[in-house]
Amino acid sequence: MEISIFFFFAVAVCIFAFVVGYVLGRLHRVSAVNHGEALVRRALLQRFSGEGYHLLNNLTLPITNGTTQIDHVLVSTRGIFIIEVKHYSGWIFANENSPKWTQVIFKVKNSFQNPLRQNFLHFKTVENILDFLPPEIIRPIVVFTGTAEFKTKRPKGVLLLDELNDYIGTYSDNSISINRVAFSVGRLECARYQITEQTDVDHQRHLERKFGSDRAD
Fold first, then answer.
1. 207: enclosing H helix or E strand
2. CA–CA separation, 142 vs 112, rounded Å?
3. What angle in degrees, to the nearest 10, is found between the helix axes of 2-47 and 161-169?
4. At 26, is the pLDDT very low, low, confident or very high (cuts 50, 70, 90)?
5. N or C: which end of the chain has fewer CB within 10 A?
6. Mean of pLDDT over the chain
7. Which string of b and e fits 69-91 if b means at least 16 CB within 10 Å?
8. Please, are residues 34 and 139 in contact by the beta-carbon 8 Å criterion?
């Protein structure tokens, strides 16, 4: 009898530890994501503000059989910049043609979705909404904001935070007229889902159905 009680107690402790670890892990991950997005938002607003620049954050847009969520869209006279943020540490092993990349921290490996592919979906979604603009005006960018170090050649289209503003600044300031900037913002605002906790939950469920729990962020 004492053995049975001890067994059930041990099982309960293990389940509790698992749940606590899972919850804390998700909270840490969400906190890191939010921190990375805040860093990008702050950097962009320091240089790109005023009538010709509109920064849209956390856009959840409809796609076939679900939604896609974009960290930032800078709508500007320099073009439309679709920005996916990754706030990672450790070593990053990346190949632009691979479906997954690898993060290594103290010899522990974690895989995550290739953010270039992830952002290509964002690009096509925005391209469909802003179908009155030439596709070359819409530019996808992946930005790493943490302390991660690339141990392979960094793929084209992947920037570090301190490179972001200079990269955007290389494009002409009259690529799009002020009127088209305003019209683009209106189109995106009309298409986006309202920012709510339920919207995030529904989007996360869509990702988990599509990718499982393997870093589908």
1. helix 197-211
2. 14
3. 30
4. very low
5. N
6. 83
7. bbbbbbbbbbbbbbbbbbbbebb
8. no
